[in-house]
Amino acid sequence: MDAARMITLRQLFGSLPSLEALRELSPRDRNVLPTTEWHSVTGALTIMVAALLLLVACGSAGEQSELPAVQPTTLTPSLEVAATPFSSATPPNTAEVSPSTLSPTITIISSMSPPPSSAPSEPRSSQDGRPLIARVNGQPIYLDVYQKQVEQTEKALVEQGIMAQGEVGEAQRVQLRANVLQGLIDQALIEQAAAEMGVTVTDEELEQSLQSVVGQNVASLEQWLRMNNMTEEELRAMQRAQLLASKVIAVVSATVPTVAEQVHARHIFTVDQAKGQALLERLKKGENFAALAQQESEDASTAANGGDLGWFPRDVALMPPAVVETAFALSVGEISDLVQSEAGYHIIKVEAREDNRPLAPEMLLYAQQSAFQAWLAERRAHAVIEHYQSR
After folding, report:
1. Nearest-CA neighbor of 147 among 167, 176, 120?
2. 116-167, pLDDT tens digit by residue?
3. CA-CA distances (angstroms) from residue 139 to 79, 126, 134, 186?
4. Residue 191 sits in which domain range?
5. Are residues 365 and 321 in the same domain?
6. Measured on CA atoms in the order 219, 210, 42, 323, is the torsion positive or negative?
7. Is there a smaller number of Cβ atoms within 10 Å at the N or the C end of the chain?
8. Whole-angstrom Cα distance, residue 248 to residue 267?
9. Cα–Cα dist 288/267, whole Å
């Protein structure tokens, strides 16, 4: 899948790794990441890239495999959190879905619910004759939009070799559907926040974005739409959502400090405790730390550089917490005892410390991403989210 057919978080945050890069991480690299953090990074990419902004489209024209559909028969909404609804635009009508008999069971949504009307009203689980998969602060998420995104996302992940087969693959598909729905919910929350902030996307910005994806001539646009099984209306909605999200992210990220207290440290890593203790004894006898790291460290990503971890702040999450805590507890030039983490055993040496050092681009990027995720979690916590699930 080439760059024109897969829009990644790089366009939102500047330099996050692609799904391909994450897939190619070595087992040692993954071990250094705490388990929860690895799922956070990959989960964010899956949701934000594949679902939140409709960023993954089909790789080629032709027949699409059909996933088990969520049947719009008897649907019951489940209400998550009550809050004052926000107004927002709704997604375009992308497919015709025949209406079914729907039976919502909401009595009261919140104290802000409108008074009952004597005129007949459409069930909460459908709008404009189209079944819904959810509502977010009253904003509908259409079932057909959800189903199409599930198909597109699954096909894109299969093409990249990320989707497994058999029982593991089925478990991934279950999680994929949940991620797609959560992405659509997050997209609605971002749209609503943009309206509150007064953030908009101009027609000129939208046209420039479209040209960067599909080229400047009509033939290129039509070919791209056929290849990705999309309408022009869907493409415009996708690009507008992406641009809107990037602007909201910029507003949220502007509050993130660009400097922080940091240390420059090295480490020697091994999975064997006895080996680690033996290496520590050699250091106590005066052996050079960097040279010993080159010879003995089992961290392939840093051994060649003498175990150099570079500069990092206290809240760096891509490193075992025990390593970070120990590094900040050491004086410059001091060597730690053997430190255990989820990955194995470390010996740490602090080379330098600065109170207000500018964050490296990748550290700043991660801090901005974390700030946005926290902001989005807060929006979720105060939203009225109704789920319509098949029985």
Report:
1. 176
2. 344 445 567 888 889 999 999 999 999 999 999 999 888 888 888 888 888 8
3. 14, 11, 8, 12
4. 1-113+122-257+359-391
5. no
6. positive
7. C
8. 38
9. 12
